[in-house]
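[Q] Does anyone have a clean structure-token version of this?
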Amino acid sequence: MTLPPQSLIYLDHNATTPVDPAVREAMMPYLAGEFGNPSSGYPLGIRAREGVEHAREEVAALLGCAPSEVFFTSGGSESNNTVLKGVVDFRNPEKCHIITCAVEHPAVLNPCLFLVELGAKVTILPVDGLGRVDPEAVEKAIEPRTRLVSIMLANNETGTFQPLAEISRITRAKGVLLHTDAAQAVGKIPVDVESLGVDFLSVAGHKLYAPKGIGALYVREGKSVTPLIHGASQERGLRAGTENVVLAAGLGAACRVARERMEGDLEGMKAMRDRLQEILFEGIEGLVLNGDPEKRLPNTLNVSVPGLEGAKILSGLQGLMASTGAACHEDRVSMSHVLSAMKVPERVAMGTLRLTVGRSNSMAQVEEAGRMLVARVQEMRNEKEP
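[A] Here you go.
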């Protein structure tokens, strides 16, 4: 893995991950001599096809499904769009109803808003103070024309898990399709499509140490959606276009590594996250934890320093790379839609830091990051005192 210089501490693994060495190794043959088109019938093309199918098997093994239920895409956004738009009959969009929730990634919310403009009905359910949607609210929102429920598995900002297994029992009983954006969860925690009870599941490669530009979509056997991209018959007609053999091989390797390392990685990330949380809460008075303190990703810590701005905290720490809970739009700063949906007060939300650990971190690094953040907050508080 190519890592930041030792003087830099990278705590933004929910944004993207470095490419794992095993992933690079798996990709290299297809960047050199093995350049064939998987649709070609001669040996060079056959080997390319075998590479794609081997990668498909690795993804399937990580998700607990059949290889025939895995389709390669360009990433999580395409996978989400394929499902959300693919369940709608564009000749009669008003006959389709989709249910989602307020803390979804824009790759779900924005396609839903697009569908509303076309005439489809979309219900965006609220969440509680921990960022969780109520399964009973999902059940009450279902109506005769409800086609799909789309609820993420784990939130990208807070790490909070949604009660997906409970929701799946409801959707199955009602005969409604269930999709989950699992981009942040796959590779960090065990994800089994049968246990979750989902019909569709989205994967983003660059969240689990594969390159950017590759993802996957799980489609349960017997379920179908209208293709987002029409053309030839690649990916069994669901996603036309010559397969990206290089990136598919990378995603397959990343899924294999994730499966092999799952237990150790999970324990290691949780230990680092908890140690960082301990240092911050011991050193920063009034610190607020956002999201579910228990039911969350093992690598994710989302905290707020009331009265300060997260961006200004990080701007004074050149050696630390992390995210905030606010976004800059030209000359203004706005709070995260996730924290807003959780009804976190603006004074608190503007001081949010999202700190996400991964394989590139060590315990020494997170302890140093904790000390840096404590010192920076104290410095800023001292500057504000009259």
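[Q] Thanks! Anything notable?
[A] The chain has twelve helices and 15 strands.
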